[in-house]
Every structure is written in structure tokens, then in C-alpha cells.
Here is the input.
Amino acid sequence: MRSWNEIAGVKVTNPVLLAAGVLGETYGSLKRVEFEGAGGLVTKSVGIRPNPGYPGPIVVEVEGGFLNAVGLANPGCKAFAEDIKEGIAEEPFRVPLIVSVYGSNSEEFAEVISRLEGIADAFELNLSCPHSESFGLAVGSDPVVVGSIVAKSKEATSRPVFAKLSPNVNNIEEVAIAAERAGADALVAINTVGPGMSIEIESMRPVLSNKAGGLSGPCVKPIAVRCIYDIYESVEIPIIGVGGVGSYEDAVELMQAGATWVQIGTALYGGVEKIFREIAEGVEKFLQRHRLSHSDLIGCAHGGF
Here is the structure.
């Protein structure tokens, strides 16, 4: 039976975490999310060098969710580490800090990780970004490449390594198995779906400056549930579920499919206040109502309960 509050030595205060890409670029924004009750924090993806990303508009609301094409904007690992170190010198985080990293190959992933070793409780490998020109599906869709990135990343750190998988592949189980065999401590599923596009009909032009972007929000939850369900039957390592979580019912559904923890991203566009606590408390009340433990819930839709 899998324990719910610890993965590879990383202990959370509750199973509802911040997802990468939202409110995770600075110490101050991360501290705000911690204050609002997140059980753990995942940063925005960080690379070797500063990256301005795409010009606006970078986010557009569509039916059932959002399209975003940020372009992996980040200050670079040096400036990012300095900001985090300065903040935690004054007031350390009380929950785990999971640093999301990206690169164009296994060597770049390893280099970023080695430079951020001192601030991270774990690393999340951004193996796919469906709107990036330089990084993305070429990295995350090939099981051999994924295995190489995970293996090199593990060599670069003593911290746990979580591999974030894309749903935009022919067989997500193959990619999950490759990551597990290469030494991943957990899998994160899923990244955004797409790329998709929205056109403003009066101007007759795509809304996003990059034209296409990754789709997230409630509309992708069924895809996340299916991916988590399939991955759970293919690997032994824990799964962290992400994709369309905006209520405790959503979190419970991902857990029943096989997730140990869940992450929240797009739902924060409606306001960060209370959502982490509300979802965590809702999960606890659900467990009490059904006289279950959290460990009972993980993967119970597979018929094991």
C-alpha cells in the first residue's frame, strides 16, 4: 500500500500542490501560495539562461479552459536561485519546494539541476511544452530520449526526480515505463494538451502571439484521468496528477485513477485564496464519509479496494 504523504522522502502537509507554470517564478509568489495552504510548491520551469518568452497575448480563455503560450519565460537558473536563497534566508519554506526544469537535451537538464541543487527538495522534469519552438514534444515523446534525460538528471542530483509527461504522445505508458526504468522517483501527469488555437473573428487573426498554445483547465480532466489510469497499471512508482483540478471531487477522481498527490494550475486564475485548503479539506471529508484512508483511495478505481 502506497503512503500518501511522502514520495521519495519528500513529505507534504496535504496532497494538494501548486502546479508548475503558475505563481511560481519568485520567492514572494511561492510564499503566498504556501500561506494559502498548498501542501507543496512547484516552481515555473527554469532553464540555463534567462528567457523572455513570447510577447503578449500569452493566455486566452476558451470554452472549458485556457490556451497559453508563455514560451518558457524565466529569469534563468542563476537569478532564480539567488532570489530563492535570499528569501529562504529570511524565512524558509515550510512545505517542499519542487523545482521544475527544462532543457533541449539531457546535458542541459543535468546542468540546470546541478546549479539548483542547493534550493530544491526535488526536481520536476518538464519533458514537454506543446507550444515551444526550441523544446517540447521532440524531447518528451521519445521513450529513449526521456530515459536518457531522467538518467542524466538522476546523476546530477541527490534529490528526488519527478518526470512530467505529455498526453500528446502515441503511447504514454511506454514513456512512463522508460522514465521509471531510468530511475524516476515519480511521474507527473499530465502536461497541457495540444497545441490548440483560438481566432478572434473580428480581427480575423489568432489571439495568441505565438498563434498556438497548450490547452488546460476542466476540459482536459478526462484526458488526465485516462492517462493516470493507464500509467498506474504500467508502473510501480507514484503518480502526481494534474489536469483540470478545481474542486475536491476532481482531486478525488484523479486519486481514484492512481494519483497520490494532485497539482492545481489553471484553477488559480479564479483566485488563489482558499482553493488549496478547500480542496484538501474536501478530500478529507470525503475519506471520512466513506471511512477510507488516503492510501485506500489511491487507484481504487482499478478494483483493488
Remarks:
- The chain has ten helices and 16 strands.
- The two ends are 11 Å apart (CA to CA).
- The first helix runs from residue 27 to 35.
- Confidence is low (pLDDT under 50) at residues 130-137.
